[in-house]
Amino acid sequence: MKLLTDYNLAELKELVAALGEKPFRAEQLYQAVNMGKDWEHITNLSGAFKAKLAEEYLPVGVTIVDKLTSKDGTVKYLFGLSDGNIVEGVVMKYRYGNTICISTQVGCRMNCAFCASGLDGLVRNLTPGEMLGEVIAANVDLGGNLKDRAITNIVLMGAGEPLDNYDNVAKFLRLVNAAEGLNISLRNISLSTCGLIPGVDRLIEDKLWVTLTFSLHAPFDEIRSSIMPVNKAYPIAQVIEAAKRYFEASGRRVIFEYTLIKGVNDSEACCKQLAKLTQGFPSHINVIVLNYVKERGLKGTAREQANDFVAKLNALGASATVRRTMGADIEGACGQLRRKYIGKNA
Ligand code: SAH
Fold this sequence. Notes:
The chain is of the alpha/beta class. The chain is built from 13 helices and 14 strands.
């Protein structure tokens, strides 16, 4: 089955025309699909037309299988895909609006030493319409619609490496940005990458000006290679160069993620080198303390030491903050909810 959420309005118009229906039917269909409606809830199209479409297409590609709400308002979703796979998403509530963190792949090939998503390798890429489906499902669930959205910001920081699924991610960005759809500005979308440099250059070529976030996690190649296998292909110097290129092309400050792992990347030498690496162009360092992942065994740096690390970065002239933990009571660690659900972490 194909997903109607994979289609933009122009493509839906072609599809509708090929089926012998009037063009305005495409707009009706598009709105219904972007509101997460299943066939039975799409009431403005004829039964015959719906039946014809239903032979080949699904209007909803993502359903909410489970949902946990934290005391601080953070909502964690388990999304079901049409082939039975499951991915996670999280909605965080901020003063300026609600941000959804979505997955871009089922599993991940990158196998970072601290991350739950790569434990079983890559299962498959998500399609653009499935990524959009995560946003649609949460938007509707939280009472939003196309005009009055419950989701205003997106971060591609769930399971998966977005730039390892470039074409689908690029189409997703255009779909979710479409004025006639959810109309979420690229400025309000953060894309986080472990540093697949060719993908960064494709973003530049395609002028997709998101907030680009690099998972740096270590300022020395030896350490970074030991926790992020991708560093062997694209070492730190290349990551920094790519970050600079993206800034120069987009005018947008880049973000570096730095997850503090006890005894691995939290030394004074690391702090100094990190400040040095990120000097000379507008950037910000998001420091976060590692979430414990049982199967990985690594531990987070103590909170107080994390605060000192950031204070030292600031004293060295680097813009840096410790990211606040949200939804701690429901989250466990990144990626753990899905594993529990699929029975791998009972
Ligand atoms: N593949 C992308 C995006 C997914 S992960 C990337 O690498 O950026 C989003 C962020 O969470 C990344 O910075 C990642 O390194 C971090 N992360 C993964 N596992 C974590 C854990 N157990 N604790 C804290 N951060 C983690």
